[in-house]
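Lab notebook, design round three. We kept the backbone fixed and only want residue identities now. Task for the bench partner: fill in a sequence for the structure below.
Input structure tokens:
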């Protein structure tokens, strides 16, 4: 029986006070982690909840992940880790049941606060190690670190040329009682690429990681947890599973590369459904411009609907004239798309041609004010668009579609998709 508490319902604002909402299915989070556990059954599983859990809500997703058996939590920024730790403490989650790794911090970070909060820290450079060791010395306790090896991403991580010096410094800090070396880790830059070039890149990354582990071993350092793979590595590169895999995009029910395999093919369930009620439904005459710049004009007399979401909510302007939307009308779903430019707070959708005898007040409109417009969700439920479709329309990736969703959109956390009544109460 899990000791993780029941996931609270949290939103930045009461859902009744804002027209749009992102419905987050926490049972889908658990399902996806279970599926991905099966792809790397012999490795620990880290649930990556950085950036507000990719826009889904950090604490509810973290609790759902721990309840589903995730062994670790991962975030990018140390400040994110501190906020998460405080929230987990308040929720009564024992720290030993929820180890957290954070991997980004500037020089001068309050390392002591991170050490006191039992945050594991990534170390790529000797200057970072020196600052962390000094903070640990001042507290009289060891800091827990994971050495990052640059295996070819050329971001953070110690290069093959720099790693011997870092390994020597870590050895000194371990011997001095300032740090405990918990892990060694890195990233794969092309794990989602099955082309010969992509496979060669991944093989090179694995070889460089092995070489880095050899440098650490030569200094007498043997990290207990080696981790190299994120979702793509967990799915497609068993040779890179090591002791732990970090599950990010897959936990949210999205594929790291839908061209290689989509969510449904992988057995994953998209976790987020973004929706808002229509705030206007009206008839507009033929050849009338729609939204700023008049980039779309009505080809005939048209029914148009207004959706209260815009680029201030994270809806990409690149979705102008193309973003897919399904309107759930009383007569059934209406598949449509954004017409005209996406504005700061709203956009327009085309609801189809209007007869000459129809007016905005006609009772036989294709949709009505208050009908729900779904931007993306699980296509297996209600024939709605997917985040992947939005990504293709906007020329980006599904990661950006969900993670950029603005804070003013309430997150409604439910189990099993929830009924309308349950979600309305959330």
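Proposed sequence:
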């Amino acid at each position: 029986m899990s000791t993780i508490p029941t996931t609270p319902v949290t939103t930045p604002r009461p859902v009744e006070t804002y027209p749009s909402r992102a419905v987050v299915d926490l049972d889908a989070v658990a399902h996806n982690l279970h599926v991905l556990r099966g792809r790397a059954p012999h490795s620990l599983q880290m649930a990556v909840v950085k950036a507000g859990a990719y826009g889904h809500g950090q604490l509810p997703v973290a609790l759902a992940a721990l309840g589903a058996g995730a062994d670790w939590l991962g975030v990018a920024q140390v400040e994110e880790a501190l906020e998460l730790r405080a929230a987990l403490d308040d929720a009564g989650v024992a720290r030993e049941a929820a180890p957290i790794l954070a991997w980004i911090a500037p020089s001068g970070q309050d390392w002591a606060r991170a050490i006191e909060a039992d945050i594991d820290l990534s170390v790529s450079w000797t200057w970072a190690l020196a600052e962390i060791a000094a903070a640990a010395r001042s507290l009289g306790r060891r800091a827990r670190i994971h050495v990052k090896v640059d295996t070819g991403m050329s971001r953070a991580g110690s290069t093959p040329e720099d790693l011997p010096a870092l390994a020597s410094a870590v050895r000194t800090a371990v011997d001095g009682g300032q740090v405990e070396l918990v892990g060694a880790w890195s990233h794969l830059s092309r794990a989602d690429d099955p082309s010969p070039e992509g496979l060669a890149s991944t093989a090179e990354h694995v070889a460089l990681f092995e070489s880095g582990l050899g440098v650490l071993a030569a200094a007498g350092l043997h990290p207990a947890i080696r981790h190299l793979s994120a979702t793509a590595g967990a799915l497609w590169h068993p040779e890179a599973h090591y002791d732990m895999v970090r599950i990010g995009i897959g936990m949210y029910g999205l594929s790291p590369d839908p061209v290689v395999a989509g969510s449904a093919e992988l057995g994953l369930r998209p976790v987020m459904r973004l929706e808002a009620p229509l705030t206007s439904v009206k008839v507009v005459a033929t050849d009338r411009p729609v939204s700023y710049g008049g980039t779309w004009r009505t080809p005939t007399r048209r029914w148009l609907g207004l959706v209260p979401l815009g680029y201030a909510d994270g809806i990409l302007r690149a979705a102008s004239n193309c973003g897919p939307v399904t309107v759930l009308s009383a007569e059934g779903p209406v598949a449509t798309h954004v017409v005209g430019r996406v504005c700061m707070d709203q956009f327009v959708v085309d609801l189809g041609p209007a007869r000459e005898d129809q007016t905005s007040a006609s009772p036989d409109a294709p949709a009505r004010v208050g009908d729900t417009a779904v931007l993306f969700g699980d296509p297996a439920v209600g024939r709605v668009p997917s985040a992947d479709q939005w990504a293709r329309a906007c020329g980006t990736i599904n990661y950006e579609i969900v993670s950029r969703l603005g804070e003013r959109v309430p997150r409604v956390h439910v189990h099993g998709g929830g009924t309308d009544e349950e979600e309305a109460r959330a």
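Keep this in mind before ordering anything: The longest helix spans residues 196-218.
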